[in-house]
Write a structure and sequence with these properties.
With 163 residues, this protein is mainly β. It has one domain: Jelly Rolls. 12% of the residues lie in helices and 31% in strands. The chain contains 2 helices and 11 strands. It has a 6-stranded antiparallel β-sheet, with helices on one face. The chain has a 3-stranded antiparallel β-sheet with strand order 7-6-9, with no helix packed on it. Strand 6 and strand 7 form a beta hairpin. The longest helix is centred in the C-terminal third of the chain and has 10 residues. The chain is globular and about 50 Å long. The chain starts with 33 loop residues before the first strand and ends with a strand.
Length: 163
Amino acid sequence: MSLPRGRHYPPDTYHGTDGEVSAWMRRAGEPADLTFRGGGTCEYLATGDRTEGRFGLYRWSFGEVESGPDPHFHRSISEQFYVLSGEVRLFDGSDWTTARSGDFLHVPEGGVHGFRGGGHATMLLMFAPGGPREDYFETLARGEEMSEEQRAEFMVRHDTYWV
C-alpha cells in the first residue's frame, strides 16, 4: 500500500538496523520549570534541545487572573495549542474564541494568534521546529526591565512580531 499522491515520509534520520534505547520520560509530579507573576507555571516537557530541534512541547498552567500575549506571529515556527482543562481564549487571526478541554488550534508560520487564560486553566503549547523558547519564557518570568529598543531586539531574536 502506498501513501496518497504527493504525501511521503521525511528522509530517514536513523540509519541503524536494530533500533536503539534512546527514549526519555518526564514524570508527572516533577516541579514546574517556571513560575510567572500571578501564579502561572510552565513545564518543559520536551525542549528543542531534547528533540534535536524537531519540536518543543510545554504544559502551560495559568494563574487565577487572566494573562497571555496579545496577537502576534512567528516567521520560522508554527505554534499549536491543545486545551487540557478550563477555558482558554485563543485568537485565530480574526476573532477571539473560547477553547475548552480537548480543543486544538494549529497556527502555521506567519499566522496571527494570541492566547489568554485564567482560573488555573491548562494547555499544551507546541512549537515546530523546536526553537529555543526557554530563554523567551524565562526572561518574561523574571520580569526584566528593558528599554523599548532592548524589548524590540529581544522579540525579534525570539521570532515574535506584534500586530
